[in-house]
Amino acid sequence: MSERIPVAEKILSANDRLAQENRARLDAHGVFSLNLMASPGAGKTSLIEHTIRGLTEQMRLGVIDGDIATSIDADRASAAGALAVQINTGGECHLDAVMLQGALNEIDLKQIDLLIVENVGNLICPASFQLGVHKSVLIASVPEGDDKPYKYPGMYRGVDALVINKIDLLPYVPFDMEYFKRGVEILNPDLVTFPLSCRTEEGLAEWMDWVTEMTESHRRGAASTDAAAPQEDSECESKAS
Amino acid sequence: MHELPITESILEIALRHAQAADAQRIRNIYLVIGQLSTVVDESVQFYWGLVAEGTIAEDARLQFRRIPAEMECLECHQRYPPSEDNMGCPSCGSEVVRVVAGDEFYVEAIDVDSNAVSEEIDPAGAEA
Questions:
Q1: Largest CB tally within 10 Å, which of B20, B43, B57, B65?
Q2: B43 vs chain A: nearest CA distance in angstroms?
Q3: Fold of A19-209
């Protein structure tokens, strides 16, 4: 005889559980983490290079680069001065929690304060897969066009910060900033936004300040919650004090 | 483009719940998928044939229930479907709105053959 069994379980619950484990692991080491998402060519790797160069005096950075093939992006991050690990997704169009878990095994979390995860260039799939990082950042760029919030609402709704790159091209391409921002505001009210240009470096300072502030407040929070617990990560502790 | 891992996840959920109920066969899997979830039914159906083969779910039918996207205006509380290039409220023009439906993405239920009737697998025990 046939019987109906209620399930009511989210389809990506296994991924979400693993993402929580990744988060716990990062927290245990006091590492703050960012997931950078964007379409191909928006400037993810350029922004990461600038971020590494700009912050390397203040903190130790690690980068995990997701790409369908090649290690070009990880090589660029490494050349800029970060600990870098490449994940080749073998054709998958996004990173998921399992892939990040594998990459976390290859990076010494005791050696870093900030981990930047560069997702695969894609405005659709990465939004569906939680990784366990602390903040998700979307990098839009002016030449992509001002209609992207309307066409990719899932991506724009799910992020914690928005970078608008290549603002130096605003005089040359049709991009209605008001129309763009209206779409963003509806999907993600009061989203913290950084208009900037990696080429001219205009606006980069505000982005750096935000990343620094987020990393430091996370470290302070981690230090206060860890105060009572046995401290295995003495190196991080001594640096913070 | 990510329907393969999604299909594997659906299978894992269905098998786990079927085993917990000591079921012999899974006949139907009821999926609820909101319009804002970027999943193509046909693609999931295609992968299903590959990933479910050899399991108690291999003959299961995937039943998709699609939920249309719906917005709610937080000013006048009108509910409406978002249009392609304007997500603002069609009544009062407000842009202070939120998504109230369309995000769904879960396995709602499964139909299974319970132990007692499994003539294929345990014919001797059919009368039990």
A1: B57
A2: 14
A3: Rossmann fold (3.40.50)
Kindly report the pTM of this predicted structure: 0.83
Give the integer Cα–Cα distance in Å for A103 and A22: 10
- Does A150 contact B84 at a Cβ distance shorter than 8 Å? yes
Highest mean pLDDT among A1-5, A123-127, A136-140: A136-140
Whether A4 and B109 lie within 8 Å, measured CB to CB: yes
Of A5, A11, A183, the CB nearest to B10: A11
Task: Tell me if chain B has a CB within 8 Å of the CB of A181.
Answer: no
**Within a domain: residue B87?**
no
Which domain CATH number covers B47?
Answer: 3.30.2320.50
Complex ipTM value: 0.78
Tell me whether residues A11 and B18 touch, CB distance under 8 A: no
What DSSP state is assigned to residue B53?
Answer: T
Cα–Cα distance between B26 and A239 in angstroms, integer? 56
Return d(Cα A168, Cα B52) in angstroms, integer. Answer: 51
